[in-house]
Amino acid sequence: MSIVQIAPFVAATVKVFKDMLETDIVKGQPEPEGDSFISRGFSVMVGLTGGWEGWFLLDMSQETACIFARAMTGEDYDTVENEEVLYAGAEIANIISGNAITTINNLQPGLNIRLAPPSVFAGQGMSMFNARLSSSSVLMESAAGPVKINVAAKEGK
Amino acid sequence: MKGLKADGTPIRVMAVDDSPVTRKMVRKALEPEGFEIVAEAGNGKEAVEIYASTLPDVITMDVTMPIMDGLEAAGNIKKVNPAQKIIMLSAMGDSDIKADAQSRGITDFCTKPFKPQEMVDKVREVFNR
Predict the structure, then answer these.
(1) What is the pTM of this model?
(2) What does R_g of chain A's alpha carbons equal in angstroms?
(3) Domain B12-128 indexed as CATH 3.40.50.2300
(4) Which residues numbered 83-102 in B keep a CB inside 8 Å of some CB on A?
(5) Which of A89, A109, A129, B4 has a C-alpha 20 to 30 A away from that of B30?
(6) Strand pairing of B58-62 and B85-90?
(7) Cα(B35)–Cα(B12) distance, rounded to whole angstroms?
């Protein structure tokens, strides 16, 4: 059974962008994504394990990823081929999902959701597909460009 | 300068995190205040291996890392030196993880994201204990 509880991830995204990247973000409304997801060019996937099985996806353009990496390290980047941009994107997604599952775990003691290490995907025209799990997305606007979050989860074993 | 001891020498810190970007953020927060980053490690096993040769005053330790996680590494380091001061640095701060960290003798906990001043104040506070 799919569980769609995207609100804690939305709240964590707004907080992390404001506190860590000093970027205000305007959030849209949750919308069902179905079984596939088209990337803007830079995607970080964090697996959800334990009490939930699924993923958290943070997606943006490669230019936006470079701007956020600069906000973290203070250095200029012009390509996602720079390893620090990949690590910065991974850490942003890791922190957002970590903050979100902390909220969920504290509200539901014993649920014990845990995170798998982030995976970063960079490339144009990427489509992600999972026939067994539908997901929800929220599109957000930041000064550095649009950012989309996507969450899919079902009860863990 | 919050990173200096009473004798004027720097407080020595080891930064352990699998993200080099986060290690860089820790370094950028602490070094301007006089702290010295004496070692960095990308996973818990590496941290345990280099610990004896660096003997930092304070360790900042990520939880989720490949090869050996931060909780296990902290436990191993505490077996070597029960007085070692360790700050757990994690995006996850639920009560189960905090309880696990406390049971392993973790000195304090810092939730990511952190602001540079928060990191400075936390490391200083833990050093003073």
Answers:
(1) 0.90
(2) 15
(3) yes
(4) 90-96
(5) A89
(6) parallel
(7) 6
Nearest CA distance, A126 vs chain B (angstrom): 25
- Nearest-Cα residue of chain A relative to residue B113: A20
Each residue of A58-106: pLDDT tens digit?
Answer: 999 999 999 999 999 999 999 999 999 999 999 999 999 999 999 999 9
Exposed, middle or buried by CB within 10 Å (0-12, 13-18, 19+), for A3?
middle
Residue B81 identity (one-letter amino acid):
N
Q: Which residues of A touch B31 (CB under 8 A)?
A: none
Tokens of residue A144, six digits: 């550095």
B18 in reach of chain A (CB within 8 A)? yes
Give, as one character, the DSSP assignment of residue A42.
E
Domain ranges of chain B: 12-128
> How far apart, in whole angstroms, are the C-alpha atoms of residue A154 and residue A131?
13
Band of residue A1 on the pLDDT scale cut at 50, 70, 90: very low
pLDDT band per the 50, 70, 90 thresholds, residue B64: confident
Cβ neighbourhood burial of A81 (10 Å; 0-12, 13-18, 19+): exposed
- Domains, chain A: 7-155 (3.40.1550.10)
- Reported as type and span, the H/E element at residue B95 is helix B95-103
What is the spatial distance between Cα A17 and Cα A68, in angstroms, rounded to a whole number? 9
Consecutive H or E run containing A38: strand A36-38
